[in-house]
Amino acid sequence: MLLGPSLAVSAILFSLGVVGVLLRRNAIVIFMCIELMLNAVNLTFVALSQRLGLDGQVFVFFVMTVAAAEAAVGLAIVIAVYRHRDTVNLQNINLLRG
Amino acid sequence: MRPLAGSAADWVGLTILLPFAGFLVNGALAFLAPRARRAVSVVGVGSVAAAFAVAVAVWSAVAGAHPAEPYVRTLWSWIPVGDLQVNAALQVDQLSVVMLLVVTGVSSLIHVFSIGYMRDDPGYARYFAYLNLFVAFMVVLVLGASFPVMFIGWEGVGLCSYLLIGFWFEEKEKADAGFKAFLVNRIGDFGFLVAMFLIFSHLGSLDFREVFARAPQALVPGGGTVTAIALFLFMGCVGKSAQIPLYVWLPDAMAGPTPVSALIHAATMVTAGVYLVARSNVLFAMSPTASAIVAGVGALTALFAATIGLKQWDIKKVLAYSTVSQLGYMFVGVGVGAYAAGIFHLVTHAFFKALLFLGAGSVIHVLHRAYHHTHREADAQDMRNMGGLMAYLPWTSRVMWVATLAIAGIPPLAGFFSKDEILGAAFARGAAAPFYYVVWLFGLAAALLTAFYMTRLMLYTFHGPNRTGDLERPHLAEAPWVMTWPLVVLAALTVLGGALNLPHVGTLHRWLEPVTERSAALLPNLAPSTGLEVTLMLLAAAIGVGGIWLATRMLKPASLTTPERAPAETGFAKLLLEKYRVDELYAAVIVRPVVWLSRVVLWKGLDAGVIDTAGVNGSAAVARGLGWIGSRLQTGQVGTYVFFFVVGALAVLAALLR
Questions:
Q1: What per-residue confidence (pLDDT) applies to B1?
Q2: Which residues have a Cβ under 8 Å from the Cβ of B538 and sit 6 or more positions away?
Q3: Cβ contact, residue pair B633, A98, below 8 Å
Q4: Least CB-packed of B15, B197, B345, B350 within 10 Å?
């Protein structure tokens, strides 16, 4: 019941997230795109739990918990970076260059 | 069943253990108390003399039982690997007992002599440690009950030979001589090893008893296999016993102390090859080709080395070439199938050649002492610095004359009987194969030259005017008694040694029969008729006398000058003086190409060029290049990383969905 449309929506959401991560430069926006991908996955879990049992529902809670924790840490890092460099544009942050 | 079990033969291991213990004690003393000469002498001589006493006891046990089969005393299992079972076992039979007596007996005398000869040497303890170790290994060599055990002794005496040739290693020349001996011997040892592999692969054992019992059935007589085995064994002998083409190390080995030359490079170690052939008589008797090669090489060496001996001025070099020549005789003996005669000559040669070397050592010692007194730098070994020494060294000159007459083959001294028996056997084989007539002729010619060069040595050393120097002359006096009495004992043995194996009595011949009976069944019985035998004997004696007579007529000790004023040699004499330039030939044909190959191809080309450049530095450069490429990927842009990550994830997805 509505499995196909649900999965289609989650695939679209996930792709949008991926494209956002690839194309955007602003750390906050990229962060939001990652959240978008996580929620696309959540949607898949929920949709498939109709068929495959409640495990998927449970997993969604885990993902949300982890996402919350990630948001806290990630935003803290972004703020720290901003304080140092006065920017959150990832093109300007390349300390890992070989 | 085993009459020797429970007898003194059970204690035969002591003949190894005692000298080895002497080596350990003297080795320790060399480090801890190098000045304790008395203790070193007691341990050094005592251990070897005790070994000789045990050897005599073992001999009397064997003489009492006279076993038909060798008595093998197994000590422990040494190499038990699958089919290969090698025990650390000692074999007591008629042949090994004869060798044991000669080795320990002559060693004892030479150890005693060394007390006097090495008295003032700072390396006194080290010298006796090496000498004891040598005796231990030599006894392992002659007593080993299988090829590998014998090989241990074989390599061990090679090591001691190296250590003692280079005993005065502060002089580069002498260290090089030891190095040369070691290297040349490696070539022969390679042959010994290959022979062992062949024996094991074809006969399934390396024990003497089993190999020689199985060989007549398992191998085709005269076939390629047995010939190959015999020839590879002989290759080992050629190295160890200094035959053509590997004889070059022995003359150089004279760099060692003279008693070492007497013991290792005349009486015992260099005769190991003859012992090996006599021990493996079954294998050699099965292959007429290999036997002929043994006899041929022996005859050629006997004549070749004798000619070089004609023109040498160094008294030890003359004796060295004489040793090479006499070893050639022994190989003629074992090559023509007269194994007992070969061993007989080995024994008598051990007596008179040890005597000659020790006598020469005594002369060198005295001259060296004289030059030391006057602080003059002169060669104490050059015969042109000697002359007229009979007046100063009466005992040495007398015993050396005895040895000279013996080696020249003058009856009734030991050398006459042993040499005559070998030549007679060669002549008898000639009836079946004319090749052996040539061998006999070579032997006869070498006998003439032997008598000549030995008389030359005696005339130049002990007769005529003295050329040592006016200042040095008052210092010339007989060596101490500790050096002379071993000479007298050896002289007595030289006189009486012939009685071991008189013609038609053949004590030694019958004694060795249990060892040689298998090969005797394979060889044609070619005993010469009595008339012919007497003719040959008279001929041999006449040759000896003729050589001495020629030398006394041709040589003028009175007109000899010291080396500084000697005229340059020309023509053939120059060639002889330069030893046919064989060393130069080897240097040009073998040594220099090998060095060139090592230096230019292997070192500069392969090592520095390929391995260093392409291998070590090359792989480093490749790693550095790859690292550079890898570091280019690290842009520091998170976007790039994500891009590759996504591409990778898509690739994985594509692979999964396929």
A1: 38
A2: none
A3: yes
A4: B197
